Amino acid sequence: MSFSRNVKEELSTQISNARHCRLAELSAILTYGGQLIQNNPHIMIKLQTESLTVARKYFTLIKKTFNINIDVSIKRNKSGKDNLTYTLIVKNRDMVINILKATKLSMDGLENGRIGNPSMLVVQKTCCKRAFIRGAFLMSGSMSNPKKSYHLEFVTEDIEKAERLKEIICAFSIDAKIIQRKKYYVVYIKEGSQIVDLLNVMEAHVSLMNLENVRILKEMRNQVNRQVNCEAANINKTVEAASKHIEDIIYIRDNVGFNNIAEGLRDIAKLRIEHPEASLKELGTMLLPPIGKSGVNHRLRKLSMIAEYFREHKEET
């Protein structure tokens, strides 16, 4: 089961005891997936989904909030034996009007049966905002596998609905953004920590903990990789520097002679050749008297300058 589906399964089990929160969640489900079918004098609310999770949650909310039964039909799609479409319809005109009024959804300005933007009156309370986002995710939300990437989105065909949802999400200090993808408008969040916050807002606490576990593991891997890369880079730099030092020292030995340089330089030069793998600190402890890392580095730089000096003069002659 996908991570996104796990989130929806968790959200589907949450039925608020507060009627105003159930109405807010119903408002979001109808806004982002419902249809209003008018054929005077008949009027119906229709919800069609391929998700049993969504169908079950919608049925339960309608039953618990309005104490009515709704017609449910199941159709097997041609694309696969396990691919089913659930259609839920409220046919009673008075009850349809009652549901629309209670969820603050307008019958005005309908286009192709799609229900219009909900009123902000339905999400005046913080708990109702949480419920609204929960309903919107059930109908139009999805989330990528966090092991691969962090991405949560809501998809709608209406820019006003996208902006309304973004406004409600941003009320929780979550930086949601909108992009257009072909004929759809996508409200999305890409930051892992912000997705965690949104799961908390929707009260998907189990999914939140699962995501946090993935984030911790990924961060640990990234930290280890950074440390390994840093150490590897330091080793490479040390090896390159040691190779250059040895090259310069051998040039001095073969062309100038150790007897023609200062005793301190001669001692460190011999040690560098004898112990090519040693660190500067280790070389310093081998001297009598011992010197620090900076002292060793100073002497090796001086040897490199001497080698460079004699190379230049040799070229001139």
Integer tally of domains: 2
What is the tally of helical segments? 11
**Major pleated sheet:** 4 strands, antiparallel
Classified by CATH, the class of the largest domain is: Alpha Beta
Strand-and-helix sequence, N→C? Answer: HHEEHEEHHEEHEEHHHHH
Shape label: rod-shaped
Q: What's the CATH topology name of the largest domain?
A: Endonuclease I-creI
CATH architecture of the largest domain: Roll
Low-confidence stretches: none
- What is the rounded distance between the termini? 78 Å
Q: What structural class should be given to the helix and strand makeup?
A: alpha+beta
Give helix % range: 55-70%
Key words describing this protein structure:
57% helix, rod-shaped, 11 helices, 317 residues, four-stranded antiparallel beta sheet, 2 domains, alpha+beta, Endonuclease I-creI, 15% strand
Walk me through what this model shows.
By secondary structure, the chain is an alpha+beta fold. The chain folds into two domains: 3-203, Homing endonucleases (Endonuclease I-creI); 234-316, no CATH class. It has eleven helices and eight strands. The protein has helices spanning 3-12, 19-33, 52-66, 93-102, 126-140, 159-170, 192-201, 205-255, 263-274, 280-286, 293-316; strands at 34-39, 42-49, 71-76, 84-90, 141-143, 152-156, 177-181, 184-189. The termini are far apart. 30% of the residues are buried.
